[in-house]
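Notebook, bench 3.
Goal today: get a predicted structure for Preprotein translocase YidC subunit from Lachnospira eligens so we can plan the truncation constructs. The sequence was checked against the plasmid map this morning, with no discrepancies at the termini. Length recorded as 633 residues. Pasting the sequence as submitted so the record is complete.
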Amino acid sequence: MEILSTALGYVMNFCYKLLHDYGLAIILFTLISKIVLLPVSIWVQKNSIKMVKMQPDINRILIKHYGDKDEIAEEQSKLYKKEKYNPLASLIPLIIQIILLLGVVAVIKDGINEGVANMKFCGYDLTWITTKQWGLSIITPIIAGVSAWLLCVAQNASNVLQAEQSKLNKYGMMIFSVGLSLYLGCFVYAGVALYWTASNIFAILQLYLLNWAINPKNYVDYEALEETKKELAEIEALGTKKGKRNKEDIKREKADYKKFFSVVNKHLVFYSEGSGFYKYFKGIIEYILNNTNITIHYVTSDPDDQIFRIAEKESKIKPYYIGEKKLITLMMKMDADVVVMTMPDIENYHIKRSYIRKDINYVYVPHGMDSLNMTMRTGSMDHYDSVLCTGKIQKEEIEKTEEVYNLPKKELVEWGYSLLDEMREDYAKMPKKENDIKSILIAPSWQKDNIVDSCLEDILDNLKGHGYKITVRPHPQHVRHMPEKMERLKERYKDDTDIEIQTDFSSNSTVFEADLMITDWSGIAYEYAYTTCKPVLFIDTPMKIMNPEYKKIGIEPLNIWMRYEIGRVLKLDEIDKTADTAAKMLAASDTYKDSIDQFVKEYVYNLGSSASVGAKYIIQEIQKAIKRHKEQE
């Protein structure tokens, strides 16, 4: 440090002799240090650009190997070596700044002790230390703090690396820098604070000059950066969607993850997002269990999934709890012959196909009988190998989509809908109504501008007094997110004995007992009409379209035209006709029964036997895989 202070002392003395003002000498000394260190600053600028340029690739690594810290570290290291990036480079300016600061402190201290210069600058004594000379010297820490704040503002907005940091990082660094500057301003000579202030101001000028000379926009793909940041943020958000997990669930997940990969030669894996999805697999799973020796590995992201209770009685089901974050890694390392899912958009977002095996048959099971083309995102089926189609409309939509977008052909299985078969069977066993009072069920969707949000009270006011038993069964999301609104509805109609606002969804009996359903675009309409062969009155609220390109394939979605086949449609300005329309539809119930039954038989595959059809296809694919493995041995 003595050698450094001696060298800096020569430079400072040169500046003082040139300007005859110690304050101006400090400012000139600061400028000279910036010029001398310019090559280092240019190197740091290029290194920072390189880092931000790599960030989309780093984000892709984080997405691809999410949760696998070892793999992420290894891939990042390879990327750094490939791009010749030094992650420690950003520390160099800070280290140099600290060394210079210590040197300047020594130089100014020597100057004071030896009295080699006039220490006045614009009437201000550069030998003052605020904590020892209160009064005018209080300006010192204020000026130093303001200069640090200005530098942080400039860096947060324009420094190629700092601009991409999180708000916590940006404002954390700002608080630290301003705090450090205030501290220095209070405890060091005013001359040192002047150097610090000048250094900050010159750093701001240098920042904009370097951005002009070496513009980051010429090197960084900011569009790709934003896309990967958004995708990574979606994955990060998964862990908070269902709240924090307890320690037992985290420990359980770790054990199940290890257990899943300890099993070799897995033939069949089902994945369920939650307990409510088991009903879509139930018929297929039961057929496989009753007719084969195949072990079913059932992965769920719900720690309370009913599959765990079912597995206690069925040894051929092996359940695993894997949370949504850990699922990303599990799916990338998947090793099985057939994977069955109800989740669309595999490969399009965070859930990917296996990187371990390329011959897995991914089978998509729809959880609705409506249009896949309109109610799913563009390309939602593109990366599945097989789709179990509920009816000929779904099959035609996928075939036409493959033709229009020039996609590889998938295996389209004429399956049906196992849940519908089960519901029709249960409905046939239900006891007949003991009275002649007609019941109407209002079952809205959760999409924007649904019945609850737009016209529910008008419908109720129009229907009451006509002798109907009216039940409002809001979507579960309404009950969850709008409890106050549901309570207000209950309060308003508490004295109307013919109106019930039902928020308990434990039973489906209310659905199937109704003589008429009123809904908007809810998928419950299919289940109700296809099961009971009773009509549905549709309120024409704005349609929810997940795929803006749905018209491109030239097939009108079932969701639109089917409404006129199994019921009638009222526009929003026709709500005053609800009671009259309902009366006419109830009077024609026998006609509707025959026409809806015929419609279901025409547009739903394998009515009454879809479970065996879906199961046999999966069994066949497993047998093909086993044969293929033997041939490769």
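The chain has three domains: 2-224, 247-416, 421-603. Residues 622 and 628 are 10 Å apart (CA to CA).
Flagging this for group meeting.
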